[in-house]
Amino acid sequence: MNRLKSLHAITQDLPHRSHVEQATMACEAGARWVQLRAKGLEVADYAELAREVVAATRPFGAVVIVNDQPEVAALAGAHGVHLGKEDASPAEARRIVGAGRIIGVTVNGDDDLERIERITTGCDTTRVDYAGVGPFRATTTKPRHAPPIGLAGIARLIERARPLNLPMVAIGGITPRDCHGLIAAGTRGVAVASAINEAANPQAAVRSFLHALGSLEPIAMPLELERGAR
Fold first, then answer.
1. Distance from C-alpha of 228 to C-alpha of 84, rounded to nearest angstrom
2. CA distance 224 to 106
3. For the CA atoms of the chain, what is the radius of gyration?
């Protein structure tokens, strides 16, 4: 069964380390959830890259999520897609990727939670499986990110989202030292890019995050996933 892991290792465009290398190194160090975030690629090229990441991480049993493009997730046989606010709607993404794959969304504020509540209430075809909440602090990985909301903002959004039963993963400039407070605030994990990929020792960075997140148990994803992406 696929489970929502506590560490989401996000790849990024780097001149010295490919997406496949980043994903593989993270998995070798113990990460079991990889989000592929590559910018500026045509669908065919993005899908080919996603296939390579899926193949490279398969021996580790890792979940692979494609950032932004549900078409790429479907073509590559990835486990799911993470949607930004300017991407396809969850309903459209579900139509493309099918019932057996994961859909994550971005939550920066109350309006995002209201939108998720409107589109998912009583409608399984628009099921959202988790949310990335933040940004915790400013980061250079995503230059046009929303204003940072800090620990207090993340805690408030998590509390407001409780009726939705939507697991939330914090994102945005997070370090291992931040994990204790984020866990106490109710996050089910953290999503990390540059703190891993641009570290002098990426594998040591992964291990530091996993140690800091050690108290979190993986959350079972919907049962459809057992019959879905492998």
1. 23
2. 22
3. 16
| Terminal CA-CA length for the chain | 10
Host H or E run for residue 173:
none
Q: Shortest CA distance to 89 belongs to which of 119, 66, 50, 134?
A: 119
Q: How far apart are CA 142 and CA 222, in angstroms?
A: 30
CB-side neighbour CA atoms (13 Å) of 30? 13
CB of 90 closer than 8 Å to CB of 118: no
For the chain, 230 residues long, give each residue's pLDDT as a single digit of tens: 467 999 999 999 999 999 999 999 999 999 999 999 999 999 999 999 999 999 999 999 999 999 999 999 999 999 999 999 889 999 999 999 998 899 999 999 999 999 888 877 655 556 899 999 999 998 877 666 689 999 999 999 999 999 888 999 999 999 999 999 999 999 999 999 999 999 999 999 999 999 999 978 888 775 444 434 43
Report all structural domains of the chain as residue ranges with CATH numbers, in order of start.
3-227 (3.20.20.70)
CB under 8 Å to 61, separation ≥6 — which residues? 32
Q: How many CA within 13 A on the CB side of residue 129?
A: 25
Decide if 197 contacts 22 (C-beta within 8 A). Answer: yes
Q: What angle do CA 169, 202, 216 make, to 5 degrees?
A: 30
